[in-house]
Amino acid sequence: QITLKESGPTLVEPTQTLTLTCTFSGFSLTHSGVGVAWIRQPPGKALEWLALIYWDDDRRFSPSLKSRLTITKDTSKNQVVLTMTDMDPVDTATYFCARIKMAAEYFHQWGQGTLVTISP
Amino acid sequence: EIVMTQSPATLSVSPGERATLSCRASQNINNYLAWYQLKPGQAPRLLIYGASTRATDIPARFSGSGSGTEFTLTINSVQSEDLAVYYCQQYEGWPPTYTFGLGTKLEIK
Fold first, then answer.
1. pLDDT for B32-55, tens place per residue?
2. Chain B nearest C-alpha distance from A14 (Å)
3. A110, B45: Cβ pair inside 8 Å?
4. Cα–Cα dist A2/B78, whole Å
């Protein structure tokens, strides 16, 4: 059974850096073709893809957010970490991580998400 | 950027009826389209990929169709548990750009 779970702070002050961790089980980021992506959903708004990392360290980012994002993986811990700098209240959202596969570039399984509020 | 437009924004259907949800792409995406179901407090669920292939363990009452720029998610014999927001997502191109529609909220009368 594949599971993913997001963790991190629920409240971040403006201009600070957000660090989120996705801990997963049921698959490995050492396996060819496997990747983990981050997607967010502001309250009442649409889903927005942020970034992804593949088993071979191939990284891709949303063009509009690329300058603020970093994504790394720790295969020994089955974790993927997303950092987003210079947070703003408009970044308030539920942040999801999801499993993706190369050549099947949709989001196969998702975590439940974690709500992050940006406020002083 | 490929823009995905979903309609209607809200759809109200009685149990047992059919629900038809539409998704339009701003340019040809072939069949690189997925549908997801989002319920509050739950992990989003992949329903359809490749425009028409049901994901694992998805009930047969969910079906997808379309190609190019026009796509449809059909839910036959809607059940109360289908109350959710449904999103389409395109993944065309290399590398893909992964854009979502704004969603259709399915209400059960």
1. 999 999 998 899 999 999 999 999
2. 26
3. yes
4. 28
